[in-house]
Prior knowledge:
CENPP protein, CENP-P, coiled coil, 190 residues, alpha+beta, four-stranded antiparallel β-sheet, 2 domains
Amino acid sequence: MDESIFKDYEDEIQALEEEIRLLTEEYENIQQESASFSDEDILKAMKSLQTEPQVETKGHVSLSDLKAQLESLEADLSFLMEFTGFHFTSHSKKTVEKTQNRTVQKHRLSGKCHSLPFQLEFQLLEMQNNEKVSSVVSDLSIIMESREDSNVSKFVSRTEERGDLLTFFRSLSTYAEWYEHRRYTFLHFK
């Protein structure tokens, strides 16, 4: 009877591991589809659209349609920045290695979450196998002012070791939001 209990536990563990693998793949696919643009990129695009004459050719989108799309994207970006508290100030991407089914890119990202500035640098390895693309983050480096809080330093160190960007962004968002609440509260009592 002991073996059947262990077998049930092993089956449950395997099912959970498979679910984790599928969720990780789904998350990585979503990450690849999303793209972030800095405020500077948006302003450059707007200026370039304003200076170009409106030309509508067969098979191409008109300038007014592009302006409407840009305004829609700006509204979406503004909503996301307000909703999450993240304001990205710069992003750069450099392809280090590219083969038929493997790409290594180096990313640099900086911004603020509420009032806490941060900088990230990491490598993203993308491998393609039979129409599936998997991504792995490596060499994660996080630069953040710890504000004399040892817990933040410990958290940053653990996150760098694990290379877990999702946990970093989720935790930073929550921490920064409550950091702002504490700061305003203390200012009120001064």
